[in-house]
């Protein structure tokens, strides 16, 4: 099936996602069929709010006929939403709806009809309830995947944290040779298969300036030997590098990917450099899953001021690959 559709789970109802979705399909033409998985009640509310006019093509998720799909309309799989809908604060009241939306998408992917998924932003605090660190781990669990990586992708430079949404006090316990090797291997494989080249990977140290006053220094004992070992295996890895100077122009231009030891060590600099011009790709899944690189942004809800660039990039990536 060459022209498999792109599944789009709208996610948190009280987010800016549908606003950015409307802007995306208005600004750019996409060739693969887009299937929005969302409540028709919520969709129509947002369409009215943002004065967005487009026909809705209601489709059956059980007997999904790809011949009936085209992007002249919004191809919608309607997910029941039990409450009256209006803009409100994010809460656990939407958890069942979000879970049902994901389950429909997972069922379609497992059937082989689609192999590409975009999900709108989800409030981890409300939806995951401490069971998973993030949506990366949630989706990986649903497909029994233990090895995954969160790649924040930009054509000029991408980043990957070894640990994701983990409190800083817990990071050191999760830094080891095995997990670093897993991330490098997944990134290398993705770049070769999807982008056609072997990436140059910089690996950051954990401590400021890769130094520590403590007897055990993770940079010397764990990270440096791992980088050396990976290089011998044929990966284009160098490091460990101090995080405070890695993102200077002359340094970052030497690499395609920077791997950091914790979330904000690499996501903060990347978002400063490229703002919305990045997408979150989950590596290791049997399909491509992407999410826009921003959260629900509830303070912007209903203001029609949100930037759709990250969602446009997400759809475009799946449209081409």
Question: Could you explain the architecture of this structure?
Answer:
The chain is of the alpha/beta class. It has 2 domains: 1-145 and 285-321, Isopropylmalate Dehydrogenase, CATH 3.40.718.10; 150-280, Isopropylmalate Dehydrogenase (3-Layer(aba) Sandwich). It contains 12 helices and 12 strands. The chain has helices spanning 17-27, 40-49, 95-111, 124-127, 135-142, 168-174, 177-195, 218-232, 243-246, 249-252, 263-274, 309-320, and strands at 6-9, 34-38, 56-58, 74-78, 116-119, 149-153, 158-161, 200-204, 236-241, 257-260, 279-283, 288-292. The strands form 2 sheets. The protein has an 8-stranded mixed beta sheet with strand order 3-4-2-1-5-12-11-6, with helices on both faces. Strands 7-10-8-9 form a 4-stranded parallel beta sheet, with helices on both faces. Helix 1 links the parallel strand 1 (6-9) and strand 2 (34-38). Helix 7 (177-195) crosses helix 8 (218-232). The chain is elongated and about 60 Å long. The relative contact order is 0.17.
From the helix content, strand content and strand pairing, which structural class follows? alpha/beta
Helix residue percentage: 25-40%
Strand order of the largest sheet: 3-4-2-1-5-12-11-6
How many domains would you count in the coordinates? 2
CATH superfamily placement of the largest domain: Isopropylmalate Dehydrogenase
Strand percentage lies at 15-25%
Task: Characterize the overall form.
Answer: elongated
Give the C-alpha Rg: 20 Å
Report how far the terminal alpha carbons are from each other.
Answer: 14 Å
* SSE order: EHEHEEHEHHEEHHEHEHHEHEEH
What is the strand tally? 12
The largest pleated sheet is described as: 8 strands, mixed
Corresponding CATH architecture of the largest domain: 3-Layer(aba) Sandwich
The CATH top-level class label of the largest domain = Alpha Beta
What's the rounded overall pLDDT mean? 94
What assembly state would you assign to the polypeptide chains in this entry?
single chain
Count of discrete alpha- or pi-helical segments spanning 4 or more residues:
12
- The name CATH uses for the topology of the largest domain is Isopropylmalate Dehydrogenase
- Give the low-pLDDT segments: none
């Amino acid at each position: 099936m060459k022209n498999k559709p792109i599944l789009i789970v709208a996610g948190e109802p009280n987010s800016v996602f549908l606003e950015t979705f409307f802007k995306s399909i208005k600004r750019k033409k996409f060739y693969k069929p887009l299937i929005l998985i969302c409540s028709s009640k919520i969709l129509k509310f947002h369409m009215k709010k943002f004065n967005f006019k487009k026909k809705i093509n209601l489709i059956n998720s059980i007997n999904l006929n790809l011949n009936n799909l085209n992007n002249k309309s919004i191809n919608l799989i309607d997910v029941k939403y039990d409450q009256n809908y209006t803009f409100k604060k994010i809460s656990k009241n939407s958890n069942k709806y979000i879970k049902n939306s994901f389950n429909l998408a997972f069922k379609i992917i497992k059937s082989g009809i689609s192999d590409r998924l975009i999900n709108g932003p989800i409030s981890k605090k409300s939806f995951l309830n401490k069971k998973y660190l993030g949506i990366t781990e949630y989706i990986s669990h649903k497909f029994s995947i233990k090895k995954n990586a969160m790649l924040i992708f930009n054509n000029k430079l991408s980043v990957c944290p070894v640990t994701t949404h983990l409190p800083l006090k817990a990071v050191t316990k999760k830094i080891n040779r095995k997990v670093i090797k897993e991330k490098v291997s997944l990134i290398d494989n993705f770049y070769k298969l999807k982008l056609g080249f072997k990436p140059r990977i910089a690996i950051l140290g954990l401590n400021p300036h890769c130094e520590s006053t403590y007897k055990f220094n993770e940079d010397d004992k764990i990270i440096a030997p791992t980088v050396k070992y990976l290089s011998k295996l044929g990966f284009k890895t160098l490091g460990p590098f101090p995080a405070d100077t890695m993102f200077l122009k002359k340094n970052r231009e030497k690499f395609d990917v920077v791997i950091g030891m914790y979330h904000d060590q690499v996501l903060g600099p990347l978002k400063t450099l490229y703002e919305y011009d990045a997408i979150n790709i989950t590596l290791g899944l049997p399909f491509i899953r992407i999410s826009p690189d921003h959260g629900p942004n509830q303070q912007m809800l209903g203001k029609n001021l949100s930037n759709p660039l990250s969602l446009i990039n997400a759809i475009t990536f799946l449209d081409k690959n």
